[in-house]
Amino acid sequence: MGLGAAMADGFVTTRLDSVINWARKNSLWPMPMGISCCAIEMMATASPRFDISRFGSEVMRFTPRQCDVMIVAGTVTYKMAKVVRKIYDQMPEPKWVISMGACASSGGMFRSYSVVQGIDQFMPVDVYVAGCPPRPENLLRALLELQSQVSEERPLGDFLRGEKIFVPEEGPVERISTPS
Amino acid sequence: MNQTILDKLNAFAPGTVIESNEFRGDLTVIVPAAEIVRICRFLHDDPDLAFTLLVDLCGVDRYTPEGRFEVVYNLYSMKNRQYLRLKLRLEADHPKVQTVTGVWSGANWHERETFDMYGVVFEGHPDLRRMFMPEEYEHFPLRKDYPLMGIPDAIPLPRK
């Protein structure tokens, strides 16, 4: 059964979008942006017990050039925000972001002058993960959620309609206020 | 031992001990700010006292009309297994005090941190840059009149 039966006549028909999405969502290479204790759980997610490679994401690359999804795991201070953003900017399109844990998503327990109250103030986020830190299962659930998001994208359709896939962002650094 | 320290300080120069108290065997002495380097040099060099280790140096914002800022020096004498805490008080406007990096070079980063958090200027410090906050930052976060969530727009974020 399975693929053999489906390809009995030697071919299948599908949309190119589906093929691209199928390839993309099953090989989401993470950029492990581990900046505090959430990183320990992220490492556990890669371990054999939880085994992130079941979902095609075992290739943790420590260079942004080879990554698809940035897992921001930890407390992002204002000083670190510039670094996180710079690494994100260095990742090639298409790219996604998982905001792992309470600190990255909302500042968490660090309601303070030095911690950014949520990384969505300076970069786009696709999936938020609750927890302090989240269990590895929770991170895997976020990865599955991201996979379902990726499978609904229309990469080729957008391209054929003439929409720009990537718009380079330039200009001066913008000041964003701290929530009071 | 604590009485010996007080006697030695009083013999060193009159008026060195502005105030002193003892809590569970730990001696705290408030000293004049202008004399801090001489006093530290004496405590460090005196062969009987030998406070050769600066355990910690930190600041306090007491938020009082007079003597608002306090700089605290925690000393330890390995020879006598003895702690000593020195304090000095500074006024709210432009608090400044001589550096003790000449006595204990370990004071370098502690004074930078105190400068970063309270704005106390250590005169003669070899490298008085901010320790934690961005270098272009203009405020002092651990002052009591600084809001908990910081000053809006004080630290730029990358644009989205």
Report on this model:
The complex is a heterodimer of chains A (180) and B (160). In chain A, strand 2 (69-73), helix 4 (78-90) and strand 3 form a beta-alpha-beta unit. Chain A contains seven helices and four strands. The longest helix of chain A is centred in the C-terminal third of the chain and has 16 residues, at 136-151. Chain A is globular, with a radius of gyration of 18 Å. Chain A has a four-stranded parallel sheet with strand order 1-2-3-4. Chain A has one domain: Rossmann fold, CATH 3.40.50. Chain A is an alpha/beta fold. The model of chain A has no long low-confidence stretch (mean pLDDT 86). Chain B has helices at 2-12, 36-45, 107-118, and strands at 19-23, 26-30, 53-61, 69-77, 82-90, 96-98, 121-123. In chain B, the strands form two sheets. Chain B has a five-stranded mixed sheet. Chain B has one domain: NADH:ubiquinone oxidoreductase Nqo5 subunit (Beta Polymerase, domain 2, 2-Layer Sandwich), CATH 3.30.460.80. With 160 residues, chain B is an alpha/beta fold. The longest helix of chain B has 12 residues, at 107-118. The mean pLDDT of chain B is 91. Helices cover 21% and strands 27% of the residues of chain B. Chain B is elongated, with a radius of gyration of 17 Å. The chains are: A alpha/beta (180), B alpha/beta (160). The A-B interface holds A 78-79, 81-82, 85-86, 111-114, 116, 121-124, 169, 171-180 and B 132-134, 141, 146-160.
